[in-house]
What does this fold into?
Amino acid sequence: MIQLNVNGRVHSVDAEPSTPLLWVLREQLGLTGTKYGCGVAQCGSCSVHIDGEITRSCVIPVSAVGNRRVTTIEGVSADASHPVQKAWLELDVPQCGYCQSGQIMAAVALLRAKPRPTDRDIDEAMTNICRCGTYQRIRAAVHMAAGNAKGRGSVFKVVGEAPDTRSLAEAPADGTRDA
Amino acid sequence: MKIRTPRAERAFDTRKSTGTPASASRRRFVVGTTAAAGGGLALGFALPGTIRDASGQAAAQAVPEINAWVVVRPDDTVAIRVVRSEMGQGTHTGLAQLVAEELQCDWSKVTLEPVSAARNLARKRIWGDMSTGGSRGIRTSHDYIRRGGAAARLMLVQAAAAQWQVPVSELTAENSVVRHAASGRSARYGELAAAAAKLTPPDPKSIVLKSPRDWKVAGKPMRRLDTAPKLDGSKLYSIDVNLPGMLNAAVRQCPVYGGKLVSFDAARISAMPGVKGAVRVNDTTVAVVADTWWRAKTALDALPITWDEGPNAKVTSKSIDAHLRTGLTSGDAFADTDYGDAAKAIAGATRRIEAVYSTPYLSHATMEPMVCTARITADRGEIWTSTQNQELAISALSQTSGLPLSQCEVHNYDLGGGFGRRVTVPDYIRQSVLIARQFPGTPVKLIWSREEDQTHDYFRPISMCRLEGGLDEKGNLVGLHIRVSGQSINAALNPAAIKDGKDVRQLQGLWKEPGDAQIGYTVPNMRIEYAMRNTHVPPGPWRGVNTTQNGIYLECFMDELARAARRDPLEFRRALMQKHPKHLGVLNAVAEAAGWGKPLPRGVHRGIAQFMGYASYSAAVAEVSVSAKREVKVHRLVLATDCGHQVNPDQIAAQVEGSVAYGLSAAYFGECTVDAGRIQELNFHTYRVMRMAEFPKVETVIAPTWDFWGGVGEPTICVTAPAVMNAIAAAIGRPVRNLPLKNEGFTFG
It folds into this structure.
């Protein structure tokens, strides 16, 4: 049995010592917010904190954790009230959301180290992969969480006004009207 | 009018033989289920929407639905039913906005209620098509779902009128309250719902939908309804499924497509921790089943396996390249567009420009790999998975388990990325069922490793393009000849869609017909051809499908022509676009927003591109610098879309940004190469994708013209790469014709 301190609780875990921390969290402790993405510390979906340090849990054997404190996405706050979580909500950052646990863990660690990060700091610290492409909103949300709001992340404008049509009942349902 | 929407991904093709997707609200179809349901299943289905069917009513519910789309609870919360798969694209929120707009309910009380495939089938497909691909979620269902919302509102109003004994015409409905101004009476939707549910629904055809000018919820940047659980780890994806007694499976498929599993030595791993066994899944796949996935994977890595790799083990990227090159000049191509005499015009032109472009195989690399949990008993089959097409999934479950559809159920989870990977081929679902059949009654969760996912995808098909143009003495384009050579998605996945050996799908975006993916230029003489060159590597739809390669070919070549003609690339295009006002409109919108022609800082160059796909028109302008060491920096990327109607501009912007990440990841780094018959890029260290530092500043211009409905998730991807490539060409003084750009010595920051 391996003793593991996760989110302030000590657990006894039945796993081979070489088992990556990620799979112990997910399969033994039921903490599924931490995600598997690549298994080779490339994508960052599995990011957790170990004694506050951002760590990719897919490549660290559970036996190497020792008595250090592990924090997962479930332990960031009791009620999604961490400034990073609030900024993420405010800016509607996630698309599919799968990578966002790791992104949030990376952002929390960044802000702990650098409370007012520059864009370059964000570039260097936020190396997690997001295939949906939420990077622009992540950047804005990190700034917002730092109390340094720089807009909503997405920059868009709608040009032209909707016409006053009584009904669109006759418009084709399939979006294939001739140009 | 001829329509060519890619349909291979559709399990249930609702087109009539004319090929025209008709308004489902007005007609009745018989659904041919093609390969998806091999049992010859043919389902008649009524219009999706407002007509209540008996079986639905019979299903006893604590709170009766008002109709198939809307449930109003006593506390006024509204459950809006959604049948499309949510994979991040925001379709659930957008669909709910459209229903809520017509329902005129309080948006803050809206919740989502996903519908399962079994439920849709049990109710004779009252919710219509569930497939979520081709950027169709909203554009093909907006009409019937809005009618569903409107019908529910009319029934709530009618219930109030009956209760108060006043004419319907004296009542108003707004913000989940029905009011009678004359008497000052009002009632909340929650109070009226039970009575409304008993009324006869109105004829959907009689419903007058609101003008978009009057929209209060639709068309507005409403917050997504599904964000909160993505922030604290509480959202469950299919990979997070945990059922009592569940086992876990890891698979290995023959590394060479077309090869076979010969044997494996299960005894060698049987004593490993947690292992329940190694099983043959099918002719090409072996699985190890264990109590945890990590133990299953560890044992699989130790399992001795013998493959018969077959003749494809000799195939390399080089041999595929040579195969495709033969298609650039061969006599077997067919011409989809052919007017005037392009060959003669080009031969007689003052200047002749020729180029050959190429694009590689690409994997989807969804963040969540393929996952499916199955539990099979003698009389019931269930899967817990994430799919872009639940009806395809339930068909696969039924076929693979041997159980009738009525004894099958799909529990679909929001996807950790789809991008077309989970829409066409339910390979992972079939494997999961085949494994679970060998453990009757026990749920087994199959998770593909990233390496399995990366090497057993249905890849964006590899292709090449030879383009030839002729300019007259004034620099006008007088002839254009385009020849695409490459692999066909339909040949692999939907051969029935190929008519007389002509697969027009590979020319998506270069079609002459308006409405879906039309070429935006008219040239005096034009010929557009396709030569099919298939390989053993399985192709499939990849976000944007064939617009992503064809957009690069056409738009980069247009810049080559403009440079040869010594004309501004925007002006050069405009001259050819006079018969294509919507293409031109969006090009003009992006040029204006980007400040085309205005001075740029020293060393910064612009590139422009426009293209069409999924019924939407897209254009982009990139501002790029390239250092002497070939370091590429995209300083700004402005994209414009005319998607007809815009339903949520904040989510459209998110999809445009997503298209930039997906499109430029591919242009910069994306490449799946083949050696010894197998894919070489196993994980993200060799299959690089864009990260934060490489993502440019993106600005989105939404320029709807409100007389059609176009897609949003895919259309803009096709202009991202060519705009950047054209800017790079402007910076270095010569075109870049082969992707990915990393192979040409470029780096990115």
About this structure: The beta strands of chain A are 2-6, 9-13, 47-50, 53-56, 69-71, 155-158.
